[in-house]
Amino acid sequence: MDTILTHEACKRSQLAVRDTLDVVGGKWKLVLLTVLRTGKRRFRELSREVGITPRILSKELQELEMNGLVSRTVCETKPITVEYALTPYSETLSEVLDAMQRWGEQHRKKIIV
């Protein structure tokens, strides 16, 4: 980093990172967003695909929905099913998810060698 941040700019930067982590932090949220990038999923599909318990999945999806990143649709089927999909707002995280995927692939190659 060639730029020296002022104290105020550094505090704003830290606050922005904390805000971001409040929304997408934790073990599952970014994984769920990545899975949903390929299309909508039913609750049980997400649970199986990600390997997450229904209780934790429900909590994570509620938080993502509350932050406007995921939409929830109750389907009029018997039994009733619920589908989850990304919202247009979730596109604002595309660069972050792409960068994290690239870094993760690079890191895996370095560590596994």
UniProtKB/TrEMBL annotation:
Transcription regulation listed as a keyword: yes
Nucleotide-binding listed as a keyword: no
Gene3D superfamilies reported in the protein's UniProt record: Winged helix-like DNA-binding domain superfamily/Winged helix DNA-binding domain
Keywords: DNA-binding, Transcription, Transcription regulation
Record-annotated HTH hxlR-type domain positions: 10-112
InterPro entries: HTH_HxlR, WH-like_DNA-bd_sf, WH_DNA-bd_sf
Top-level taxon of origin: Bacteria
PROSITE patterns assigned: HTH_HXLR
GO terms assigned for molecular function: DNA binding
PANTHER family xrefs: TRANSCRIPTIONAL REGULATOR, TRANSCRIPTIONAL REGULATOR, MARR FAMILY
Protein name: Transcriptional regulator
